[in-house]
Design a protein that fits this description.
This protein is mainly beta. The protein has a domain of 150 residues: Jelly Rolls, CATH 2.60.120.10. It is 5% helix and 33% strand. It is built from four helices and 28 strands. A nine-stranded antiparallel β-sheet has the order 1-16-20-13-10-15-8-7-28. The protein has a six-stranded antiparallel β-sheet with strand order 6-25-24-27-22-21, with no helix packed on it. A four-stranded antiparallel β-sheet has the order 2-19-4-3, with no helix packed on it. A hairpin with a 6-residue loop joins β21 and β22. The longest helix is centred in the last third of the chain and has 8 residues. This is homogentisate 1,2-dioxygenase. Its EC number is 1.13.11.5. Pathway: Amino-acid degradation; L-phenylalanine degradation; acetoacetate and fumarate from L-phenylalanine: step 4/6. Belongs to the homogentisate dioxygenase family. It holds the Pfam family HgmA_C.
């Protein structure tokens, strides 16, 4: 896979592996030896524990990281409510209670760029279900940002883990634990509570996001596939420690008065802010199992049939967030990369189906082999939603093409990549997603399936 010069910049250094214990130190000797919280941590640092699960969670599920920082994160005045930056974010828990729950299939044209928004103000909730206060459910977003966040700001969500899927533009994300450079065809996950700021080194950015209120993402079990395939653990990357310690970082510059940093938190989908006299990016060293990470979708090892029939889309799962019921997920992240189709006597695109899961689909680049026709089309930067038990499948043009295709080995999706947020929940659509964004394609189902031909021959071939 090609890499840009960004990768070789000193600040973009990564550790490889998923769900691993990592330790990282920006200064030699900053990590204590033999214990986590000595009476006097090395180098005059403070020890602070960041817990992503209950202390008593089973060892294989436990997510905890120790941070060794110049000042603890609690050192700030009280948070105060702030006005919503847009009509779908910052309006409180009512957002998830005022959803439109409808059985109709929905498809959106590409969402608009917003040249005036930063990452936080450009985050729009489209759909979701659950209750962040009960740590249940998930929410799906579009983000569109035209400018970087200010250097003296940071954001975090107390509601859940955030999975980001860039579609246009590069995200240069500074987290408490280090830097992540995330480009289209890469994804990243920022855990609940981790503070970060988003910069746009190549200009405007647009993409998709899923916030997981319940649990954490894991790699799916491989079962009969064996020990390798799909997303391999070694290909995930976590940042190394990077910190500020200059005079400006701690309000020590006297020439133009003390410096302040603004911290914004999303708490039950409402926004609160505080200011503090020190940088939030002062973690000198850290160790543990709870950290942001990224993954290059080009490294996904696609598994498929080599005999007949199209496999269930679950075979394309990158990350899964299991529910309390075995084999069922609050959210799966599924990707459809370039792949070979060789099935004999097989209708090769995804078949027509109704699903107990809800399917929110987006397109990162290229085209999708089962959605070639229909007015408006399914194009990069757009999306579709097929809710619980809403029938869907290839549009009429795609169906006829696949029905009559010569069945020789064929590579589909070259230069393309579609993805799906799949959830066991019946998801609602926000006012913004249904009306305000003005991107819903009218008569989507009619244009896609209204002209399907009748091939019935009265019981005779």
């Amino acid at each position: 896979m090609p890499v840009t010069a960004f990768e070789f910049d000193e600040k973009y250094q990564y550790q490889n592996g998923f769900d691993c214990y990592f330790e990282s130190s920006g200064v030699t000797g900053a990590l204590p030896l033999g214990q986590n919280s000595p009476q006097k941590p090395p180098l005059g640092l403070y020890a602070e524990k960041l817990s992503g699960t209950a202390f008593t969670a089973p060892r294989h599920e436990n997510k905890q990281t120790w941070l060794y920082r110049i000042l603890p994160s609690c050192s700030h005045p009280p948070f105060a409510p702030v006005a919503a930056p847009n009509e779908s974010l910052g309006i409180g828990g009512e957002a998830l209670k005022k959803m439109h729950y409808i059985p109709n299939q929905l498809r959106w044209d590409p969402f608009d760029h917003d040249p005036h928004a930063d990452f936080v103000s450009g985050l729009h909730m489209v759909a979701g279900a659950g209750d962040a206060t009960l740590k249940q459910g998930c929410a799906m977003y579009i983000y569109a940002a035209g400018r970087s966040m200010d250097d003296r700001t940071a954001f975090y969500s107390a509601d859940g883990d955030l999975l980001l899927v860039p579609q246009e533009g590069v995200l240069d994300i500074r987290t408490e634990l280090g830097w992540l450079l995330v480009r289209p065809m890469e994804i990243c996950v920022i855990p609940r509570g981790v503070r970060y700021q988003v910069h746009l080194p190549t200009g405007p950015a647009r993409g998709y996001a899923l916030e997981l209120f319940q649990g954490h993402f894991v790699l799916p079990e491989l079962g009969p596939i064996g020990s390798n395939g799909l997303a391999n653990a070694r290909d995930f990357q976590a940042p190394v420690a990077s910190f500020d310690d200059g005079p400006d970082a701690f309000g020590q510059t006297a020439s133009d008065g003390p410096k302040e940093y603004t911290i914004t938190v999303k708490f039950n989908n409402a926004l609160f802010q505080t200011t503090q006299r020190h940088t939030p990016f002062d973690v000198v060293a850290w160790h543990g199992t709870y950290y942001p990470f990224k993954y290059d979708l080009g490294r996904f090892n696609t598994i498929g049939t080599i005999s007949y029939d199209h496999p269930d889309p679950s075979i394309f799962t990158v990350l899964s967030a299991p529910s309390d019921h075995a084999g069922t997920s609050i959210a799966d992240f599924v990707v459809f990369p370039p792949r070979w189709l060789v099935g004999e006597d097989t209708f090769r695109p995804p078949w027509f189906h109704r699903n107990t899961m809800s399917e929110f689909m987006g397109l990162i680049r290229g085209g999708y082999d089962a959605k070639k026709g229909g007015k408006g089309g399914f194009v990069p930067g757009g999306a579709s939603l097929h809710n619980v038990m809403s029938g869907h499948g290839p549009d009429a043009e795609s169906y006829e093409g696949a029905r009559n295709a010569e069945l020789k080995p064929q590579k589909v999706g070259d230069g393309s990549c579609a993805f799906m947020f799949e959830s066991c929940l019946m998801v609602g659509v926000t006012d913004w997603g249904l009306r305000t964004c003005q991107k819903v394609q009218e008569k989507y189902s009619e244009h896609s399936w209204g002209e399907l031909k009748v091939h019935w021959k009265g019981g005779k071939e």
